[in-house]
Design goal:
Helix content: 40-55%
Order of helices and strands: EEHHHEHHHHHHEEEHEHEEHH
Shape: globular
Distance between the termini: 33 Å
Structural class: alpha/beta
Radius of gyration: 23 Å
Length: 261
């Protein structure tokens, strides 16, 4: 019996009934994360990870015994969390990796002063660069080169590539998945875009930021690929990605979902 929703003016049909979409959600789902989850589930079955790497021809060394895969790869964040409350190690890491004049000048700053320089407030812990405030160091960093380096450093700690396959501990395939959207860029907020426009700075592409994160901050050699519907140029199509895999271990409905692409 149709589900009714009571209102002041009387019962109404639900939205699925009104628009004729009363069918399983997977038949119309367009969410990139769900499709990535399906791909990830398939990659973890049998020898699919190795089959996928062979099919994509990633041109990376492969050590089958150490190949691993991660969804929403947050290596930088997790390294930061693993440091715990060791403020001296946190300051050393930022100073050595960023090395802008303003950071070098903070050698004798207190924890509170250090955090204040980046627009965060903790008096006891050096906060993650992911929490830094772009508006704050727009006020304190005059050099465009140093400013964008600091922005990029902050954004790297917030970036989470959709799917990363480590072919060795030092090599990785980085996949950014798209269904209907295009490549993203930084900054993303209107306020930060305004700052970049005033300074005459170009925006940083998603790929450019991830390349910097992997190579400069993590020391990992990576190949970067977009997973899209059509798979043009430096892209891989969803269809080709799934065709490279043995999908027999997935539920029937999941296999039918994949067939849509």
């Amino acid at each position: 019996m149709p589900t009714r929703i009571g209102t002041a003016s009387g019962p109404l049909m639900n939205l699925r009934e009104l628009v004729g979409a009363d069918r399983p959600y997977w038949q119309i789902n367009r969410e990139e994360r769900n499709l990535v989850a399906l791909l990830y589930a398939a990659l973890l079955q049998g020898d699919n990870l190795i089959r996928f790497l062979r099919a994509i021809d990633a041109n990376l060394p492969v050590e089958p015994e150490v190949v691993t895969a991660y969804v929403e790869y947050a290596y930088l964040r997790d390294i930061w969390a693993a440091i715990g409350r060791d403020n001296s190690l946190k300051r050393k890491a930022i100073t050595e990796l960023l090395r802008t004049p303003d950071v070098l000048a903070l050698q004798s700053a207190t924890t509170s002063e250090w955090n204040e320089h980046f627009g965060v407030r903790s008096r006891t812990d050096i906060e993650s660069p992911s929490n830094w405030v772009v508006k704050r160091f727009d006020e304190t960093i005059e050099s465009n080169a140093d400013f964008i380096a600091t922005c990029r450093f902050k954004w790297c700690f917030r970036a989470k590539p959709d799917l990363v396959i480590h072919t060795t501990h030092q090599h990785a395939l980085v996949i950014e998945a798209k269904v209907e959207s295009g490549e993203g860029s930084y900054p993303a907020t209107a306020a930060e875009k305004s700052i970049f426009k005033r300074r005459g700075l170009r925006r940083v592409s998603q790929t450019e930021l991830q390349e910097h994160m992997m190579r400069e901050l993590l020391g990992i050699e990576a190949r970067h690929v977009f997973l899209t519907l059509r798979g043009q140029r430096q892209q891989l199509s969803w269809s080709d990605a799934f065709k490279a895999l043995d999908l027999s271990g997935l539920p029937t409905w999941a296999q039918r979902w994949v067939e849509r692409y």
